[in-house]
Amino acid sequence: MSQPPEAAPPQRSDAAPAPPGAEGGVFWRLGGVLKTVRPHQWVKNVFVLAPVVFAKHIFDPLLLTRAGSAFLVFCLLAGAVYTMNDLADVEADRLHPVKRRRPIASGRVPVGVAKLVASALVVVSLGWAYALAPAFFVVAAAYFGLNLAYSLRLKHVAYLDVGIISTGFVLRVMAGGYATQVSVSSYLLVCTALLALFLGFGKRRHELAAAAHNAGKQRAALEAYTQRGLDIALAITALATIVTYVAYTLDSHTRAFFKTDYLWVSTVFVVLGVGRFLQLVSSRPKSESPTQEMLRDGPFVGIVLLWLVLVMWVVYNLRPA
Where do the DSSP E strands lie in the chain? Predict the structure, then answer.
């Protein structure tokens, strides 16, 4: 009597999901490329516009055009960095319950295509940066070099990885100043650095809690982090961010420059935003990232918009009686 054929062994749960198939065609792969460069994350590059906004030049057509160009350069450069980061992380991403669905990790975007896209974005963005201003090009190139080092090695060093992310935001602000030839306040640079550190530590805290025993496999630096250490880092950077922002709004030079004593009122929304982000870190364990989640969280987006409206009103319209 013949034996029934053996059942195929079940697939490992940590294997990357099979792509829908080559029959997806060109548009399917192009969609994967678009997803890889993460246009939804480009909102971070609005920090490039900060010098123009806080220098009261946002309605100057020439400066606004140059600032917009600088913003687009950093968007293209960020797309290249995200692509290169996914290339470097492809094996680790295939072990992650959410990141395994990323286009490169899943096979939707072939590695060769991803490398070509990253190279093209780097050439175009840095060429555009040099045409805009040599000093802007230097900062943009430094941003790219720093992120390249991050993707290849430095992201594996706990705390230094978050420091590099923070430095990237500071470079964005500096680049905006060079592109528009607007001086950048030291307060703006310090607030940017502290806020970026806060967001970065929040992301690591979320990743550590979500990864559980697979932390080291999903991100090598997570092995050196502890929840208590990250909670302390979050508390320190949150408080430092708020205190520095309050000091900026109350500074005599700030009040004289904006001709108003009311900018401090916007601190309310800074406190609410910090609190809401901490909520997202602890209450959305299944999301890929709290920094990504905050961009589609209604309350957080509302807080940011209210802060922006209030700041614009105070800086550009309100005058003391």
Answer: none
